[in-house]
Amino acid sequence: MHILVSNDDGINSEGIWALVNELKKVADVTVVAPEKQMSAVGHAITVQYPLRVNPFYKNGEFFGYAVDGTPADAVKLAVKAILKDKKIDLLISGINHGTNTSINIIYSGTVSAATEGTILGIPSIAISLATYAPNPDFTFSAKFAVKLAEFVFKNGLPRGTLLNVNVPPVPENEIKGVRVTRQGNAFWDDWFELRKDPNGRDYYWLTGKFVNYDQEDLDADHTAVQNNFISITPIHFDLTNYKMIEVLKNSGLENLLQGLDKD
Amino acid sequence: MHILVSNDDGINSEGIWALVNELKKVADVTVVAPEKQMSAVGHAITVQYPLRVNPFYKNGEFFGYAVDGTPADAVKLAVKAILKDKKIDLLISGINHGTNTSINIIYSGTVSAATEGTILGIPSIAISLATYAPNPDFTFSAKFAVKLAEFVFKNGLPRGTLLNVNVPPVPENEIKGVRVTRQGNAFWDDWFELRKDPNGRDYYWLTGKFVNYDQEDLDADHTAVQNNFISITPIHFDLTNYKMIEVLKNSGLENLLQGLDKD
């Protein structure tokens, strides 16, 4: 089994290190990841500028390839250039330091790397440890990633669908189980702090609090994790709201040109 | 009717200028847009750095607010800070110079601005002129945007759904009509050119060609536009693949912890 690993916390982060060391016990692993922290970059790709690739060493040993771009860039470059003629059985993005549930999926670089893998036809997994505490222990998440990798390698994933995994930050014996979930209805109630820089000029800084509207619904990703379940959500990149197609067709929208003044 | 306008081509682009001038005939308009070109940024937001806002003048008159961030940043900042106490009836992102159909939706900053508006509860539209030719004529697209704005203002949109509009780059009398479509199955067959910089160091540059797998299906966004229809796709930010939830539940995935060595 040959696994491509990427992330959005950067190639020098603890989460990717823990993941790779555990995966190497059962698979060949190639790491291609952003050289710097790239959180909240969404599905950005670099088209206006070139990309550089540098070998990255850790504790004196070659660890992987550092790309001066986004997570999606790293995955594209891995598949289309660095590993061009090599079979890739699986892509795993992570282990992210921080929660990637509900609306965070939209902003997540971790998920974006797995989305790019999915677009390129590789079964892909995004995995996050759901805590913002400093220096969390990635050991259990990494062990779970190995089990999940073996499961997906054996069972496959339907083309176009990836697994978004969030692991609760509790001791292993407190984890209640695994739940297949939907993207939850939780959102940022955010605002901007208006401040003055040392030269007296205004600047804004985003902050906010996270509000979970799903309450006790354990079928929602965020709630499942809060209740100490490992959450696994199948997500895809078809954003069409199919239910709305018929509604819009019946709304008169397709006749809109008739009202346009053709002069 | 008060309309917030943003884009990803930057506040000084021709597409936003054409859109705003046409919208001002029927509505109050506030422009809050990135100060620079921000194509292919996906749904990136800026959390690690502060944001600046500067008034932007065009032909000696105040045109709008320039934000040194992404399209999603601009919309968040508009709603949560600049227009904090003002009602916003509608958000329009565009007019983008370039096609935003099928897989491009994932990478699009234009769509991202409308997605952020939708997340914040504002009925939102992304509009693109489907050509990469230099200096295209945005006149018809802008007139159509006004008609569509009036339609959405009157009929509303369901919470969580936005309209992604692509206008074919042909003379008005060659446009065949409006079609409500789905996100198409068209993808980039992309590769990287490996080059040497003036100092002899390697760099990679992304390029590729666009391949449409939908053939003649006029219900697909890209094909509709290629056949001179205005394409309108209802898209949402719930990425869950609901069909897969039951499949995964029956696959044994929820029993995966039982196989994990608890030491």
Automatic annotation (TrEMBL), chains A, B:
Binds 1 divalent metal cation per subunit. It is found in: Cytoplasm. Gene3D superfamilies: Survival protein SurE-like phosphatase/nucleotidase. One of its GO terms (cellular component) is cytoplasm. Its EC number is 3.1.3.5. It catalyses: a ribonucleoside 5'-phosphate + H2O = a ribonucleoside + phosphate. Its cofactor is Mg(2+); a divalent metal cation. Nucleotidase that shows phosphatase activity on nucleoside 5'-monophosphates. This is 5'-nucleotidase SurE. It comes from Candidatus Chryseopegocella kryptomonas. The gene is surE.
